[in-house]
Each structure stands twice: as structure tokens, then as C-alpha cells.
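Box 4.2: Ligand-aware structure prediction
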Amino acid sequence: MEIQRFDIVIIGAGIHGAACARVATERGFSCLVLEQYSAAAQGTSSRSSKLIHGGLRYLETAQFNLVRECLKERARLLAEFPELVREVAFYIPIYDASKRRPWQIASGLSLYQILGGKGFQRVPREQWRALDGIRLDGLQAVFRYTDAGTDDAALTRAVLRKATGAGAVLQLQAEFLEAIREMDGYLLRYRAGGSTLECRARMLINASGPWVNQVLDRVLPVPARRELELVAGSHIVIPGTLQQGIYYLESPSDRRAVFAQPWQGNILMGTTERPYRGAPEAVAPTVEEIEYLLGIFNHYFRRGLAPGDVLSSFAGLRVLPAAPESPFTRTRETILQPDDPADPRLFTIYGGKLTSHHATAMKLLSRISPHFY
Ligand SMILES: Cc1cc2nc3c(=O)[nH]c(=O)nc-3n(C[C@H](O)[C@H](O)[C@H](O)COP(=O)(O)OP(=O)(O)OC[C@H]3O[C@@H](n4cnc5c(N)ncnc54)[C@H](O)[C@@H]3O)c2cc1C
């Protein structure tokens, strides 16, 4: 029997695999998406902070292009998925002990606005009592600006529906096993329904998130790759409500930015950053991370929540290029790595943002398309 041939085979049905499948099929390529689990968005794309944002804090590390691109993408997503991506008010309270002073926050928000953000205001003192019971002693200023939030897994499914609607084939419970380079692409093997199946791809996209280098270990000949570091980020869901929006809080112990946001009738707190060396599928929040996040919430909202009050928790993995600096200040730019720069037949997506998934897919397809003609 003739082996089925696709223009593009994508490994992974997270947000990047979904976006690449969508853009590829919209450009007329035949496309197969392989996903090892029984549903899409089971990896990082359901374990993010769920923000569709430029990333105000990336201004501190001068990642202006990333912020500009993400703000442009935020506007696009608000228009394309109005029922899934919604504007939210963000509040930044500044206390006597905060590292960032009011003038620094005002400058950052001004720059954010220049790069494509919406306007911001200083919340008048008489309105502070309406801010969900946030601690008032030592409070010097509160800034309000607008960004957006989403349900990351639902957004991934929506993008994937666009792809399958345009003709992409999605194969769930299909684990990619190996790929062997041929003259004009790759011969692939994957396991599905208890059998090992084969297909051919003129181009292979490795969109397997934290599994990227494990996938590359299964490709012959061994393709070019980046050294990466997996950095775990945890969230907790705690009881309560936040009526006004999302609070952008500074951790009193290490000055990192942490968000407290309304989430499915409760409160989502996150995130953390911890180097991770285990299997991607085994990542889970640690006791220390849960206590750290609870401590920040209790500090700002004067509650006495204990670990036993935590309703649920989850952890995801950032894929960052290996480098000596702290993960908090490391670049969040997406890297598109070809197997062979002279004649690429495989591209690996390292890192990236939920917010910029479409821009990443557009860039990747622009690099892929010339190799088809
Ligand atoms: C803690 C945290 C918070 C974040 N917060 C935000 C945020 O607020 N806003 C934002 O814009 N971005 C955020 N991000 C970044 C964003 O979530 C990720 O960039 C994005 O979800 C990565 O998607 P992906 O498709 O590359 O990977 P994934 O979603 O992990 O998808 C990879 C898929 O590949 C599949 N796969 C792996 N191996 C195989 C195989 N052998 N065969 C078949 N399938 C396979 C996996 O099962 C998985 O479904 C955050 C990231 C983290 C970790």
C-alpha cells in the first residue's frame, strides 16, 4: 500500500502546533497534526498564566520587539476571538517597601502605551477601598492599565478548529516515534490505536513544547538543535473572588512579579520559576511553590489561607535557551531552528508565547513556503 504523503506534518497539538496547522492549511498545504494525548492542549498550552499581553515586565529587560509584537497580536486576538479573549483591568499597587517606585511604573506604562498598549491611570486614593480588600497600610500608589486574558486550552482548541475546518487532519493519541530524512522530506513512524503507522512529510514541524529535544532524539540523521533549559512555573487556585480585575503583585521575598486573577469563580495565583530536569509529563507544583504563592496572596490580601485551602494547582514548563542569567531576565523570543540551514526539511519551535502564536506560525510558514516551489 502506498504510504500517505503530506506537505507538512506537525508534532504537537499545543497552541503552536494548532497555529502552524491553521496557517499551513490556509496557504493550501496538506497537513497532519500528531498529538500523543487524547485531547489537544494537554501540555504547556493549558498551564500558562492565561494572559494575552505584551508583557509589561519584559520592558525591564529591553525586549521591545517582543512586547510590540505581542501587543499587536493581542489586538488581533481580541478582534478574532471576542468570546475567548477579553480585556481585563490590571492593578499595580506600590508600597513603601516595593522595589519599583511609582515613577518607574508610570514610565514603564508610558512606554507600554507607545509600543501599542492602552492608556493607564493612577487610581485615586478614595477608590483604594474598592480594590478587593488589598492591604492599605504602606500603600503609596495604585496604577490601573488594560491588558487581556483567555482560557488557554479553549483558545488552542479554537485555533485547531480553524485548522481542521480548513482541511488539516488531527490525529489524537498518536505518538511520534521516529523520522528518517529522505531526498524530499521525511519518512515518519508514529504509534496510534495500538499500531505503528507510517507517512511521508515534505516538511516536518516540531511543535512539541517541552518535549522538543526528545523529539529531535528520534530524528535521523541527528539534526541541529539548541541547548535548552526547562523552567517550571506553578499556579494555585484558591477560594475567593477578585471583582476588579488582575493584581500585579511584587513578591515581598524576591521581588518577582506574580499575578492574582479571577479564574472560574475562584482566584488563580502564579507563577514561579524553578529549573526542572525531570520528564516533562511529570512536572507538578512543589510544596515550597505552593507556600510561596500563598504567602504572597496572604501578604497583600490580609488572609490566612493555608496549603489545605488550595483548591487545585498545576505546573507548566517554559522552554528557554540555556544561558547563565536568571530565567526571570532571560529572553522570551521564539527560536525557529532548521535541521539543515542549507536545505531545511524540519523546523523546531523553541519557546514562545501563547499571545504571539499566530505571528510565530506566520514567520515559520514564510520560511517554509519557498522550499515547496
Ligand atoms: C508557567 C507558564 C506561564 C505562561 N504564561 C503565559 C501567559 O500568560 N501568556 C503567554 O502569552 N504565554 C505564556 N506562557 C507561554 C505559553 O504558555 C507557551 O509558549 C505555549 O503554551 C507553548 O505551546 P506549545 O504548543 O509550544 O507547547 P505545548 O502546549 O506544550 O504543546 C506541545 C504538544 O506536543 C505534544 N507532544 C510532545 N511529544 C510528542 C510526541 N512524541 N508525539 C506526539 N505529540 C507530542 C504534547 O503532548 C503537547 O500537546 C507561559 C508558559 C508557562 C510555562
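In the box above, the bound molecule is flavin-adenine dinucleotide. Residues 64-80 form the longest helix (17 residues).
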